[in-house]
């Protein structure tokens, strides 16, 4: 998940409320927009008795020196089975990928292990039993974490090293091909769900426009605000590496904005000095190592290096990444052993949903759309039978 400064601004104007995550880096706030906390049914939540083994474990990454907390679920009564490592989206997530009262990866692991697939789900950096400093890390660091998990699986006698794959959601969906590009001999297949393959710079534009549409009316005001935002973002990270450089970038963009736009539009967007000052503060979070990396990273460069089979899935109601644009690009990048599907009435978080509005994630009782669970399971088992 990626959350833009527009969401923060909307929250400051009390247009929305949100659960901040992580609190140290507000530009990467989880895009969970809620007004009340009510208890909802979770019919897919796993309950004992479990028909697979569950092993809580810790391991040390040789390349990172970090300790990782994880849970491995393995099928019972099967000697040779595929294994997948789950990769969460943006934010420091626990191993269950707990978002809006749902445990997305616990539900996914339960289904897959019940159908003959071992699953390793791992706490992200600085979460649960995993060490490290999340806010100093980039997507490359997260890829190294996943590679450490794969290498640990390779040391186990109960895991077939030739049948290990990755399943990544959202940002995890672009981490997966990055790992496969790093160590192609260790990855047998990939599943990418809701992956922002067009790049997070474009995703920022997409999400910002959605948030601004609710704030700035008519369209002339919206277009002026988007021009201002893009002028600033186009200079990051090339010209903004520290606070002083960022302030210069924002000031130059604002100077151009004041000269270009009519007094009425200027007054609507920046009505007072407090708003002007807030504009500077809202862009400071883009100085974080993560933002500095993702704003210049093109996922296509790693996707093009992937030679193993890939399953790519989008929901047509995804409002956090543009499914049409991402789907079209991934179709161009894929090789003959890959498959792309667009699932009707599914949101970014894999739930059945006709609107895709992120504020509905918690209220939707189903954690993962059953057709997606079945597709992933069938596809992974098929790859395991074919071999690497």
Give me the strand/helix succession: HEEEEEHEHEHEHHHHHHHEHEH
Second CATH tier, the architecture of the largest domain = 3-Layer(aba) Sandwich
| Count of helical regions | 13
Order of strands in the sheet with most strands: 1-2-6-3-7-8-9-10
Describe the biggest sheet? 8 strands, mixed
E-strand count:
10
General form: globular
CATH-assigned homologous superfamily of the largest domain: Alpha/Beta hydrolase fold, catalytic domain
Any idea of the CATH class of the largest domain? Alpha Beta
Q: Which regions contain 5 or more consecutive residues with pLDDT less than 50?
A: 3-36
CATH topology of the largest domain: Rossmann fold
Average pLDDT score? 90
Distance between the termini: 31 Å
Beta fraction of the residues? 5-15%
Structural class, please? alpha/beta
Summed up, the domain count is 2
Radius of gyration: 21 Å
- Helix proportion of residues, in percent? 25-40%
């Amino acid at each position: 998940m990626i959350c833009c400064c527009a969401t923060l601004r909307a929250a400051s104007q009390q247009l929305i409320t949100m659960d901040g995550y992580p609190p140290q880096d507000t530009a990467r706030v989880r895009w969970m927009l809620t007004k009340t906390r009510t208890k909802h049914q979770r019919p897919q939540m796993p309950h004992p008795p479990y028909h697979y083994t569950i092993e809580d474990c810790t391991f040390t990454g040789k390349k990172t020196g970090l300790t990782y907390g994880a849970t491995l679920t393995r099928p019972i009564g099967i000697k040779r089975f595929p294994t997948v490592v789950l990769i969460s989206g943006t934010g420091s997530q626990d191993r269950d990928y707990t978002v809006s009262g749902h445990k997305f990866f616990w539900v996914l692991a339960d289904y897959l292990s019940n159908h003959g697939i071992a699953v390793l789900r791992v706490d992200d950096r600085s979460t649960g039993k995993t060490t490290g400093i999340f806010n100093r890390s980039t997507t490359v660091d997260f890829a190294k974490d996943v590679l450490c998990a794969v290498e640990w699986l390779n040391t186990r006698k109960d895991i077939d090293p030739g049948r290990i794959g990755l399943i990544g959601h959202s940002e995890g969906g672009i981490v997966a091909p990055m790992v496969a590009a790093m160590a192609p001999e260790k990855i047998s297949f990939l599943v990418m769900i809701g992956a922002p393959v067009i790049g997070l710079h474009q995703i920022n534009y997409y999400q910002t426009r959605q948030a601004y549409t609710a704030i700035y009316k008519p369209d002339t005001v919206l277009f002026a605000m988007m021009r201002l935002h893009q002028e600033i973002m186009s200079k990051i990270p090339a010209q903004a590496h520290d606070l002083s450089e960022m302030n210069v970038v924002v000031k130059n963009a604002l100077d151009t904005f004041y000269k270009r736009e009519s007094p009425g539009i200027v007054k609507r967007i920046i009505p007072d000095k407090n708003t002007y000052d807030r504009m500077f503060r809202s862009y400071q979070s883009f100085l974080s190592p993560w933002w500095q990396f993702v704003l210049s990273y093109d996922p296509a460069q790693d996707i093009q290096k992937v030679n193993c089979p890939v399953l790519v899935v989008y929901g047509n109601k995804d409002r956090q990444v543009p499914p049409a644009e991402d789907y079209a690009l991934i179709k161009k990048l894929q090789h003959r052993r890959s498959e792309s599907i667009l699932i009707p009435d599914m949101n970014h978080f894999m739930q059945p949903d006709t609107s895709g509005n992120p504020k509905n994630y918690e209220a939707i009782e189903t954690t993962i759309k059953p057709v997606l669970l079945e597709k992933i399971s069938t596809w992974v088992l098929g790859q395991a039978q074919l071999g690497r």
